Each structure stands twice: as structure tokens, then as C-alpha cells.
TrEMBL record:
InterPro entries: O-antigen_ligase-rel_domated (IPR007016), TPR-like_helical_dom_sf (IPR011990), TPR_rpt (IPR019734), WaaL-like (IPR051533). It comes from Pelotomaculum isophthalicicum JI. It is found in: Membrane. Keywords: Ligase, Membrane, TPR repeat, Transmembrane, Transmembrane helix. It comes from the Bacteria. This is O-antigen ligase family protein. It is a multi-pass membrane protein. GO terms for cellular component: membrane. TPR repeats lie at residues 712-745. One of its GO terms (molecular function) is ligase activity. The chain crosses the membrane at residues 108-127, 139-155, 167-189, 195-212, 224-247, 259-280, 306-324, 330-347, 354-373, 385-404, 420-440, 509-529, 550-568, 574-592, 613-636. The keyword Ligase applies. Residues 316-523 form the O-antigen ligase-related domain.
Length: 893
């Protein structure tokens, strides 16, 4: 495990029981202790540890008697030495296969798999947090290759173990549950995407838990995660000041960086900041136990540990600065709570140093973040970087002062005077409260502005409770298997309490519950329960091993930090964060001995043939995953290439290829929102429609509806096709379905009123007067539908409605209503609604046309000609229908 530590602060903390310590020491000297290193007498203590005693005795002489201090230090060093040998013995037990040329020649496979995993952990944050499907598919392909090399290495070691701990089974159950729920998914394309993500998470967890062989591997993984996060932080600072451009990397005074979402970035940086605290502390521990001989030969300022403490200080400063620059209220709340838990759980002797480091780094990071962002908003980029570097220099100066005072006995002094220090801190807090009170009373304007800002955040919190309530509605309808992956995104508009736009629940556990039902909820609960059980066992079992206990604790805190914030946001939807989380799960799992080790130990002295069936099975599994990911990636590539097509035939060929490789994605059949503006619609429906193949277009539209059952746009396109084919009842039914799927979106009321008008027109021209009258009356009733829906809202829901204007009768609705009223013979009402439409640029041309028809029926020929002239000017194509419209019979009630 990590290097062992001895802190004089621990010694002073035991000064209340000095006599008992002396007795324990005398008993320990009599024990038969395994000796390592060079010793000068029978006590089994190496000379380098005795050097540590001698170096620290002078410090303790200032607080307790010299003799007792000497003996106490010897006791602690003795315990440390015994613990070191115990850990060494435990490590020796993990050897499972006798070394030979045969298995050593496959060691390269471990290197490929391990460093492949490192690349997989390093890169995702720079690809939009791995939030989008194409990047996830490419990551899955890479992981499948890494998975095969890992099995090649295990095969060479005769290690056939795949799953053995409850955590293994629960993590594997995660993709299985998503796969099962996909069979009844609300959107099959989104369900497939979630299966891709969860397979990726399992593979990364399994790789991390199996490829780790020692503490060096763990440290390497933590450093890769840490350095990657530093790159993300620097990218955020650079895009804030315009040095580089990241789309939505800095917006509204908040740093988004490559994640393009500040709250998720805050969660990610918070977790990695805790890792940074551990790396800083670990270097401090390593520095403390440097041998006496080394310290005599190498100046402290030139030691490696001394240098790395400054590097970690700078890194932690940057991470925390950008974390604060995200201005994530939820992120700051979760971090603050976890920080208290983190410090409380650290082993004694580590709390004060880490607290001082956090205090110094946090103070200067806060100053730098505040000034950097506020200045950058005003485009003063030079000043922004000045404040950042000033904060960095202050943080490094603080580290230098801490290092100096630590060597002078700072920690011992704090231990002895802790009561007085606590009193000073308490008085400082009280003085701060008094200062805040004075500020509030003398700066009422600024306080009112702050309260308004808090009201915004409070509104955001209330909104999320509505999301949660609506998620529970969906869960209640499908409690067992849920709505499939992406179920919330697909269907939430059918259940929302008021109009809001949110493709995520903003609570990953509720989202899992919506998507996979009780089975998914039990699975994610099992994952966390198993992880925390392992963490508790390891933490409690390492009471005397301070470095190991610290490592177990930091992995737990970093993981729980991500998991806690995921309860109030959608962090786990960004796979870059989830990969870090499942890697931490895997690291914790790696500390447990695999059951295969005991079997292999028995075989250590005899030849064990490789199990080729296991390698074959792993190869097949890897090939299947590779094929699965490859098909999806090829399909998306063809879909994107449609945009570059030179003709409709070429575009049609490409989209058909995309469908052949992934027949479950509805956007390939009907996509009303293509990723890049194009000359062609990049979906099968519109390509067929453009070529006049209406039957094929209809088939494509119906397939889109089958794959995306709660997409109002798909039903609207289907309704349009039905109308074009004169299938009036089907067109109306599809339009009504679209409205029922999104009852708080005004465009579907507009579409429905238009569909009713067209349906009535088609029936009227077909001589079906009664059916026509029914549809015109339904069009006339659309404004009442809008009012009824708005009346269902409470005052609070109306106040929270901000993502769109409140629903009212729009000019588009009034146009359809006015035209229907004209054909129903309600000319006064028709005239009023049509005139009300003239102020709308989008509809005024058609409104002039209907007014011309109305004036013609009223025998006001000049006005009719004037309105027609306006119609021809604004909408010449529509004006061509004038003769046909004025010939329509008017229905009388």
C-alpha cells in the first residue's frame, strides 16, 4: 500500500496515557518481531526508523518529558514497523501463478489493456463529457478491444475468474436490466443508446477491478483522472478568456468548459479535487518518512516529495478555482457537506494538515474565481489572467509557509493549543455574523438583489420537485420494467404538470427508476450497497494502517460525492463522469482478493494448462460487443453523410444503409430536427416524399411512430401524410394524438386547428357536408381546449412557467378558427378572428385571402379585390386558390 506515516501530532495526542504506552512498549520489545533493514540491537527497529525518532524527539521535549517522548516515539515507530511487515506478508499471498517464460511473454497484454484503460479515462471529458451517442459508441468499440487484451493476460495467468463478488453481479445486472427494459421501450433508439452506455460502464468497472495489481497501478489511475481534470479546468479558463473556442464553454458568467454543462462540470471537479487532496497528503506522508541518511545528503528543498507538494497545491488551486467558476449552487452544497465528512473520516494526524491545505487553497481559489470570471465577462482577459496567477502565487506561498512551519512544529503546537484555537475560530465566526448583520442593515439594495438571485435558485429547486413528481407518475404506470432507456426524454411531455423543457429528470436515480422500473432501482441500490459495504470493511480493517485507511476513505468520498450530486442533477448522463465513478467502484473492488487466487496457489508448484475455452468465450464476447458498437457507429456515420449527398438518390442510399445497420433509431425514418442544416431532409420519410413516393413515405412515417411512441412530431408528420392522401379520419386522429402527447405545447393546438380546417375542407369538397360541419365546429372549439388546459394550472405552476409564453389563442389558431367560422356561416365571428390575424407576419397573407373570400360572399366586391391584392403580394401561391375557395358552399346552422 502507500507509504507509512508518522506524525508528531499523533504522539502528542496520546500524551494523556503515557504510562500505559511505556508498558506497551516494554511488552512489544519482548515479542519476536520479523526484522527488516539494519538494526543496532534486539528491538527489531531499523536504523532509518530510529533516525525518525531522533529527529522528532527534540520537538516533543517542548511539550512532555524527554524520556517519555523518546519512549513514545519508539512505541509508534515499533507499531509502524510491525504494520509494514504485516502488509508485506499479505502482499506475498497474492502470488497465484509460478513465473515462467510461457506466462511472462504475455505481460505485454496487461500493459496494452492497462494503458488502454488509462486513455479511456483520460479522453472522454474532452469529447463533450461523452454525453452524445456517437462518442459513446466509439468508446464502446475501444473498450471491447481493451477487454480482449485483459482476458488474454488473465488467460496467460491461468486466471479464469469473471465474476465473484456481489458488486460484480450488480454492475453486470445494470446493462442486463436496460436490455430487458428495451423490449418495451417508449423509444427504441434511445433504449439502444442506454444499453451502449451501461455495457461501457460494466466493462470499465471490470477492467479497473482486474487490471490493478498493486498500489502503483492505483496511483497511476488516480493521476490519470487528476491530470485529465486539470486539462478540463485549463480548457475552461482558456475558453472563458477567448484563447480557445469551445461551443457553450462559457455562458452567462459560468464556466462550462468541455462538458458544456456547469453543474456536471462542478460534480466532476469536486470529486477530482478530493483525489487531489489525497495526492497532496500522500506526498506529505512520503516526505515525512524519508530516511535520515537521505535527508542528510539531499536538501529538503530539492527532495522529490517537496517538489510534488507544490505541484499538487497548484493543481488543486486550479481545480477548485474552476469549480467555483461554474457557480453551481447544488455542486457547492454537496461539496461542502462531503468536505465535512471527508475531514471527519480522515485518520488522526491527517485532519489538521489537510484542513490547513484546504483552507489556504480554498481561500485563494475563491478570490481568483470571483475576480477571474467577473473580469472575463467584461472582456478584460489580461486582467483575468493576472488575478488567476496572483491567486496561484498566493496559494504556493501559503504552501511554502505551511511546509516551513510544519518543520518548526506547527502541528504539535496546534495539538497542544487546540482549545484556544477553537475559541479563536468561534469568535471569528461570531464576528463574521455580526459583520453580515451590519451589512444587511446598511446595504438594503444589494441585499434585495441577492434575495432575488436566491429566488431564482429557489425556483430552480421547486421546478425539480415537479420533475420528480412527474417521474413518479410515469413510474406508477410502468413499475416493473419502466419505459426503457430514454423513456423520460421520450414521454415526459405527456405527464408534465406545466410547460417546461427538460430531457433529464435532474435526479439520476429517479431517471433509472423511470427507465427500468423496480428492477433498475434494485440494481443501482445493490451497486451502492455493495460498494459501501466493501469500503466499510476495508476502512475498519485498516485501523492501524494510516496510508491504506486514507486511500480507502478518499475513494469512498470521491465516489459518494458524485453519487450525491447525481441525486439532484443528471451528472451520470455524461458518461465521462460515470466512467470515473465506476472506475472508483473497480478500484475499491480490486482491494479484495479474488477467489481464483486460492485455487492458483495450490497449483503453484505444478504445471497448469491454459483454459482455451475461457479465452475463446472472451474473444466471442469481445467480438459481439465490437460488432454491436461498429454497427451503430457505421449507421450514424451514414446518417451524417446524407448531409453531404449530391442528389436525392445518393441521400436515399445512405439513409437506407444507416437503417440497415441500426433499424431501431426512429430519427433515420423521421427526423424533424436534423443535426446540421441541409439541402435535403436527412430521413427516409422526407426523402421519399420529395421523390413523390407517398406510399413509401407513409410506411417510413408509421415505422417512426412504432419506434418512437410518444413523439408528437412523428404523429404530426403522419397526420400530414394522411391529409395528403385524403385519409381524413386518420389525419385527425394522428393530430389529436400529437396534442395528447404534449398538451402544454401551443404548436399542437395550432396544428390540430389547421388539421380540423383541412379535414372539413376535404369533406366539404367531397360533398360530405355533415362531416365537414363536425370538423369545422371542432376547429372552432380549439380556443376552449387551450383555456381548459391553462385552467388546470395552480398559481405556483403559472409562476414557474418560463420556457415558453403562457398558452393563449395564437394568430395561427385564430386563422383556422376564422376560416372555419366563415364556412359555418358565422361571418361576424369570422371577420373578427381573421382581422386579428393580420398583425402576424406569418399568417397575414392567408388571412387576407380568407377575408377576400368573406367580402365576396358579403357582396363587397371592392374590399374583396383589395384583400385579394394584399394576399397575392404576401402569399402568391395561396392566392391562386381564391376562385376555388369562393366557390365553396357555406354551411348554415
Amino acid at each position: 500500500m502507500a507509504s507509512k506515516t508518522l506524525r508528531a501530532g499523533d504522539t502528542a495526542a496520546r500524551s494523556n496515557n503515557i504510562q500505559k504506552a511505556i508498558s506497551d512498549y516494554e511488552q512489544a520489545v519482548k515479542c519476536d518481531v520479523t526484522k527488516t533493514g539494519t538494526t543496532s540491537n534486539n528491538d527489531g527497529i531499523p536504523d532509518y526508523l530510529k533516525g525518525l525518532v531522533n529527529r522528532n524527539t527534540a520537538v516533543l521535549r517542548k511539550t512532555i518529558s524527554p524520556v517519555l517522548a523518546q519512549k513514545m516515539l519508539i512505541i509508534l515507530v515499533k507499531e509502524l514497523h510491525i504494520m509494514t511487515n504485516s502488509v508485506a506478508k499479505m502482499k506475498n499471498k497474492t502470488t497465484v501463478v509460478k513465473k515462467s517464460r510461457e506466462n511472462n511473454q504475455w505481460e505485454f497484454s496487461h500493459a496494452i489493456a492497462f494503458w488502454g484503460l488509462m486513455i479511456l479515462l483520460f479522453l472522454p471529458p474532452y469529447f463533450r463529457g461523452l454525453f452524445f451517442q456517437p462518442e459513446q459508441e466509439r468508446a464502446l468499440i475501444s473498450t471491447a478491444v481493451i477487454f480482449w487484451f485483459a482476458w488474454l493476460w488473465k488467460w496467460s495467468k491461468r486466471d479464469n475468474e469473471f465474476l465473484s463478488h456481489p458488486l460484480d453481479y450488480f454492475v453486470l445486472a445494470f446493462p442486463i436490466v436496460y436490455l430487458i427494459s428495451a423490449f418495451q421501450a417508449a423509444n427504441y433508439g434511445l433504449a439502444v443508446d442506454e444499453v451502449v452506455k451501461t455495457i461501457l460502464y460494466f466493462l470499465v468497472y471490470w477492467l479497473a477491478s482486474r487490471l490493478i495489481r498493486d498500489e502503483k497501478d492505483i496511483t497511476t489511475i488516480l493521476h490519470v483522472i487528476y491530470i485529465s481534470a486539470l486539462g478540463v479546468a485549463l480548457a475552461g479558463l482558456a475558453t472563458t478568456t477567448g484563447i480557445i473556442h469551445i461551443n457553450d464553454g462559457f455562458k452567462d458568467g459560468r464556466i462550462y468548459s468541455s462538458f458544456q454543462y456547469p453543474n456536471a462540470l462542478a460534480s466532476y471537479l469536486a470529486a477530482v479535487t478530493f483525489i487531489g487532496f489525497y495526492l497532496w497528503r500522500r506526498t506529505g506522508i512520503s516526505f515525512t518518512i524519508s530516511t535520515g541518511e537521505e535527508q542528510k545528503k539531499v536538501p529538503i528543498r530539492l527532495s522529490t516529495e517537496f517538489f510534488f507538494q507544490y505541484l499538487y497545491t497548484a493543481g488543486n488551486f486550479l481545480l477548485f478555482t474552476v469549480f467555483l467558476g461554474t457557480k453551481s449552487q447544488g455542486g457547492l452544497l454537496v461539496f461542502s457537506l462531503m468536505l465535512v465528512i471527508f475531514i471527519a473520516g480522515l485518520p488522526k494526524g491527517g485532519r489538521i494538515p489537510v484542513f490547513i491545505h484546504i483552507l489556504l487553497t480554498g481561500a485563494f481559489s475563491g478570490l481568483a474565481a470571483w475576480r477571474f470570471v467577473s473580469v472575463a465577462v467584461n472582456k478584460s482577459n489580461g486582467s483575468a489572467w493576472f488575478w488567476l496567477f496572483a491567486g496561484l502565487v498566493l496559494a504556493l506561498v501559503g504552501q511554502a509557509l505551511y511546509s516551513l512551519t510544519e518543520r518548526k512544529g506547527l502541528l504539535q503546537w496546534i495539538t497542544v493549543h487546540r482549545k484556544g484555537i477553537l475559541a479563536v475560530i468561534l469568535l471569528t465566526v461570531l464576528a463574521g455574523c455580526a459583520g453580515v448583520s451590519v451589512y444587511v442593515n446598511t446595504h438594503t439594495g444589494e441585499v434585495r438583489a441577492l434575495l432575488q438571485l436566491d429566488d431564482i435558485h429557489l425556483r430552480s429547486a421547486i421546478e425539480r420537485f415537479y420533475f420528480y413528481r412527474d417521474a413518479l407518475k410515469m413510474f406508477a404506470l410502468r413499475p416493473l420494467l419502466g419505459w426503457g432507456g430514454g423513456g423520460w426524454q421520450e414521454a415526459y411531455r405527456s405527464f408534465q404538470s406545466y410547460m417546461y423543457n427538460s430531457n433529464q429528470v435532474h435526479n439520476d436515480y429517479l431517471q433509472i427508476m423511470v427507465e427500468t422500473g423496480i428492477l433498475g432501482l434494485l440494481t443501482i441500490t445493490g451497486i451502492w450497497a455493495s460498494f459501501l459495504r466493501i469500503a466499510h470493511q476495508l476502512y475498519q480493517g485498516a485501523r492501524e494502517n494510516v496510508p491504506a485507511r486514507t486511500l480507502f476513505w478518499i475513494i469512498t468520498v470521491a465516489a459518494v460525492s458524485i453519487g450525491a450530486h447525481a441525486a439532484i442533477d443528471f451528472d451520470l448522463s455524461l458518461s465521462a463522469i460515470t466512467l470515473v465513478l465506476f472506475t472508483l467502484f473497480g478500484i475499491m473492488r480490486s482491494f479484495l482478493a479474488h477467489p481464483a487466487a486460492d485455487v492458483e496457489k495450490k497449483k503453484n508448484n505444478k504445471y497448469v494448462p491454459p483454459n482455451n475455452a475461457v479465452l475463446a468465450g472472451a474473444s466471442i464476447a469481445s467480438a459481439l460487443i465490437l460488432f454491436f458498437g461498429g454497427c451503430l457507429a457505421t449507421a450514424y456515420s451514414s446518417y451524417i453523410n446524407v448531409i453531404q449527398a449530391k442528389s436525392y438518390d445518393q441521400a436515399l442510399s445512405l439513409i437506407q444503409k444507416a437503417i440497415a445497420y441500426n433499424p431501431f433509431n426512429p430519427i433515420y425514418y423521421d427526423d424533424t430536427n436534423p443535426p446540421i442544416p441541409s439541402l435535403y431532409h436527412v430521413d427516409l420519410l422526407h426523402l421519399y416524399q420529395a421523390q413523390g413516393k407517398l406510399d413509401d413515405a407513409m410506411a417510413a412515417s408509421m415505422r417512426a411512430v412504432e419506434l418512437s411512441k410518444y413523439n408528437a412530431n412523428s404523429y404530426a408528420d403522419l397526420s400530414t401524410l394522411y391529409s395528403a392522401n385524403k385519409k381524413t379520419p386518420e389525419a385527425v386522429q394522428a393530430a389529436e394524438k400529437a396534442l395528447s402527447l404534449a398538451p402544454f405545447q401551443i404548436q399542437w393546438y395550432e396544428f390540430l386547428s389547421k388539421t380540423y380546417l383541412i379535414a372539413g375542407y376535404n369533406e366539404l369538397t367531397a360533398g360530405k357536408r355533415d362531416e365537414a360541419k363536425e370538423y369545422f365546429e371542432k376547429a372552432e372549439g380549439v380556443p376552449a381546449k387551450i383555456q381548459i388546459r391553462m385552467d388546470t394550472l395552480s398559481d405556483e405552476e403559472k409562476r414557474l412557467w418560463k420556457d415558453a409564453p403562457p398558452m393563449t389563442v395564437t394568430p395561427t389558431v385564430k386563422l383556422s378558427v376564422g376560416a372555419s367560422q366563415y364556412l359555418l356561416g358565422q361571418w361576424t365571428e369570422a371577420d373578427s378572428n381573421l382581422k386579428a390575424t393580420l398583425d402576424d407576419d406569418k399568417n397575414k397573407g392567408e388571412a387576407f385571402l380568407w377575408l377576400a373570400v368573406l367580402r365576396n360572399k358579403q357582396d363587397r366586391a371592392q374590399e374583396a379585390q383589395d384583400f385579394l391584392a394584399q394576399a397575392k403580394k404576401l402569399s402568391p401561391d395561396l392566392a391562386k386558390d381564391y376562385e376555388q375557395l369562393k366557390s365553396l358552399p357555406v354551411l348554415r346552422r
